[in-house]
Prior knowledge:
The complex is a heterodimer of chains A (635) and B (331).
Chain A: H1 9-15, E1 24-25, E2 28-35, H2 41-55, E3 58-64, E4 80-87, E5 98-103, H3 106-114, E6 118-127, H4 136-151, E7 155-159, H5 161-165, H6 176-187, H7 192-202, H8 208-228, E8 233-234, E9 244-248, H9 249-260, E10 264-267, H10 274-283, E11 290-293, H11 297-309, E12 314-318, H12 320-336, E13 340-346, H13 363-368, E14 377-380, H14 384-401, E15 404-410, H15 411-415, E16 417-421, E17 468-470, H16 484-502, E18 510-512, E19 516-523, H17 527-539, E20 544-549, E21 551-553, H18 559-564, E22 566-573, H19 594-603, E23 607-611, H20 620-631
Parallel strand pairs in A: 1-8, 2-5, 5-6, 6-7, 10-11, 10-12, 12-13, 13-15, 14-15, 19-20, 19-22, 22-23
Antiparallel strand pairs in A: 2-4, 3-4, 9-16, 14-21, 18-20
Helix pairs in contact in A: 2-6, 2-7, 6-8, 7-8, 9-10, 9-14, 11-12, 17-20
Chain B: H1 34-49, E1 56-60, E2 75-78, H2 84-94, E3 99-105, H3 106-112, H4 114-123, E4 127-133, H5 168-173, E5 180-185, H6 189-201, E6 205-211, H7 223-227, E7 232-236, H8 245-250, E8 254-256, H9 262-269, E9 275-282, H10 289-292, H11 301-315, E10 316-317
Parallel strand pairs in B: 1-2, 1-3, 3-4, 4-6, 5-6, 7-8, 7-9
Antiparallel strand pairs in B: 5-9
Amino acid sequence: MVELGLxxxxxxxxxxxxxxxxxxxxxxxxVEVISDSGEGAQRCGQSFGSIAARMGxxxxxxxxxxxxxxxxxxxxxxxxxxxxxxASGPVTNGGDEADLVVALNEQVLLARLRAxxxxxxCIILLESEWQGARDPAIADSYFQVxxxxxADGFQVYDIPMEEECLHYVADARRGKNMFVLxxxxxxxxxxxxxxxxxxxxxxxxKGDSVVQTNLQLLDAGHDWAEDNLDFKFEIPATRSPEPxxxxxxxxxxxxxxxxxxxxxxxxxxxxxxxxxxxYLSDVFEAVGGVVHQAEDEIAACAFAIGASYAGKCAVTITxxxxxxxxxxxxxxxxxxxxxxxxxxxxRGGPSxxxxxKAEQGDLLAAxxxxxxxxxxxxxxxxxxxxxxxxxxxxRKIAETFHTVVVVLTDAxxxxxxxxxxxxxxxxxxxxxxxxxxxxxxxxxxxxxxxxTGLARRFVPGQPFGMHCLTGLAHDRGSRVAYDPQINQExxxxxxxxxxxxxxxxxxxxxxxxPEGDVLVVGWGSTxxxxxxxxxxxxxxxxxxxxxxxxxxxxxxxGIKEAMAKFDKVMTVENSWCDSLxxxxxxxxxxxxxxxxxxxxxxxxxxxxxxxxxKGRPIKPGAVAQAILEKLNGER
Amino acid sequence: MTDxxxxxxxxxxxxxxxxxxxxxxxxxxxxxxxxxxxxxAVQRLCRDEQxxxxxxxxxxxxxxxxxxxxxxxxYGFHGIHGxxxxxxxxxxxxxxxxxxxxxxxxxxxxxxxxxHWIHAIRYNMDxxxxxxxxxxxxxxxxxxSPTSPQGLQTKTTxxxxxxxxxxxxxxxxxxxxxxxxxxxxxxxxxxxxxxxESAFHHKGFSFIRVLQRCPEFLxxxxxxxxxxxxxxxxxxxxxxxxxxxxxxxTYKNQEAHDPAxxxxxxxxxxxxxxxxxxxxxxxxxxxxxxxxxxxxRSYTPDTIKGALEAELDKFTIAPANGGEDEDTAKP
Lengths: 635, 331
């Protein structure tokens, strides 16, 4: 075990003699740590978030990921890092612009500036080693960016991180991140004991000397900030009385698969879904589960269908392009009434689009993308916690209704971290086992109930259940149908199952005002931003509510009634929608956003939309602005 | 979840399965179609092996050949074009106790499903795979197939097929982890049965290319070989086929080929005339995916809870009143 805390006790005693700085108490701050790829800004940011979470702060972290593995150093395209929103109370989204940014060079800082991610006048802690760069172009670039930022009112601090770190390591590129973590711990008055534990855990596998070096760097950063910075904050924290877990959405998906009792996950690598399977690969086999990396997306889906058909409900995890490839196989599962869970961790599209970026443009493809009428269940996870529980719910629905359940998450949820109450396992989470009772001679494999469309499923191994499952139209005996009435009957019963599920769904709860001027409807990862925006607008006295849909197909009852209580209805979505400001766009030509299409089609209600496809989570400030414009009749 | 365990069905000694127990729907293949011969051979195998029909699964894709599962009495899975192999792999992975057979055609396996074929060889899961190769698309009414001979006139190649055909045997023998490769012809049913029987007994991915006649679209394709036994090369060996004396009288063109000899197997496979019939290659020592990745641990609520709690511990922030020293949050 590593001795924690010895490194800097002597120095800390010395510092205690100095006059303490005033500590400013904050409700929340948004912090970004940005570097070239490979400099560890992501680990620094995640560690900072974890320490704050363990102190009891609400957090939401957002990964800033370049598209390439090794983008060029000091480039705008290469900006890599983490955004951490830290607050006194719970946090449900990544928030608006950053309040404080640590940047390891001015180019990656420019990337964030140009993406409008920095609050005007915010604090910038900038690595100053470039001032003395041998290449005069680099030094010029540094001063130019820095001076412009200062002129624009940003509070820029030149920090000799490289120089300070070289006291402890030969290569400061590896280690600067822990110096930065130390600075942030000082700036936000975080508990250094927790910070040391965090480092000890994070580097445990690399041995004591690595841990010790990183602890030295942590302390050095902390001490430097204490001695040299003229500001210090505190974001009061209250630790929850209940145990919490901190994971990102993809890990939550993996934990959910484990908790659901599913035993087979078949997948093919695709960003940003793959890390869910990485996590499962690590832990699944120990309990008898299998993660099968198939030769392609179609094979992954077909493998999962085979396992499900044989009695072990399976999941396949993918992202948009992979989902498109699986569509034919998904139709087969619907046709054959085979339980199957499909996860689509959405990314920017179409085509290869923006693989590492957030978007929620796959909703209609999930609902209607296959050929023919293929009724399936579509759920949208709205939070990290939802990612966990949706796997349990999806499996139960898949096994109860013998159909495909698609769970949509996105790149925002995949990599974001947020604490939520530790799940307490109950056996109710597990789907009922396959019916093992004797099958009567002559029983039919699709003996559809006239009211619900449900039929008992026969699984290989069961005597008298033999039949040939087929993707062709088939009768109750699974025989290929040549009679036109039989096809009509099959489609009707498969469709009825969705109605049967629909009758069990609860009306989603309304957030904010139950009636008033504007109702915002959303789905998926935008819930936190929408509700925060609604809260802000309501504080200004407006009567606004929001509705967040977790079941997109079928839609629960009561939604039309909820919409009827507001003058105007708008969706807020992270997917494309035409703007009426474009010359050729009018009510005849306008293409709506995904959810907007669904609501207009189902409820015959005039639904407007505000949407953005900038490859990043929607900000509450932008949503609040859109609501205000709707209220004022400006849109 | 526990495995679906079939009820014990006690059968007295005299209650043996008969051929009728394996017959499903009335076959609707054309008269004289080679698929009928394959069906008869498989039904005979099931009867000889006394396989409980409920423990057999016949998987197929799309095409004439892929109607096969409808005509067996067992569990059948008639899925989508080209994807029979990954479906069969999922079934075998979930339920190693089931006997898995795959029927696939030259379009299904060697065209739309080629990626799955190559990787299925590599996975080497225990299943019997019959490539019904009639060298043409039948169900869609005569388009060129990857195994069609060069020059063959079809509806999509009215001036003759442009390319040399793909040879399924040399392809299979070229893939790492290949463990059983054989060739049969529909017009020698006795050997087809023996080959399918050997394939069934081989533990691993048993690949049989069956050359079969399509009386509708290519009635004369194999006539020279059917008429002249000298154009068939029988592969015989004590570890391979041992044709009956009467058959040997007709098929005198024979080669003693040890199925362990991969190099010779590849040479034999590359010759199309005479047609080699028999077991080209067999290796019982190749690793099988379902053995390397066993799923036979009991999956009970207790094991799930245990695993989940251990994982949640890794990510838990202890409550305010909890023992702080037990904090183990990780980034």
